[in-house]
Design a protein that fits this description.
Layout (H helix, E strand, L loop, with lengths): L7 H14 L13 H4 L3 H10 L8 H5 L8
Length: about 70
């Protein structure tokens, strides 16, 4: 069997896409707005976003537009 590990940012991106699709947040909303929705996981998620050079002021649309997540 071929088990692929999903990059944590792909998982986040899928969750954010669902939030946008269900109109909980808008693509133009800033990344910091989702902090409340991720609770205790937020510090880890925020750190990963910062490592990928996202700002908490960036719109969610920028997060959703990433096609490939690669760790350097």
């Amino acid at each position: 069997m071929n088990h692929q590990v999903i990059h944590p940012m792909v998982k986040l991106q899928r969750q954010v896409r669902k939030l946008v699709d269900s109109k909980v947040v808008l693509p133009s909303d800033r990344i910091w707005k989702i902090a409340f929705l991720f609770g205790d996981d937020w510090p880890r998620i925020k750190q990963e976003l910062l490592e990928f050079e996202f700002s908490m002021q960036d719109p969610l649309s920028e997060l959703l537009s990433v096609e490939v997540w690669e760790d350097e």
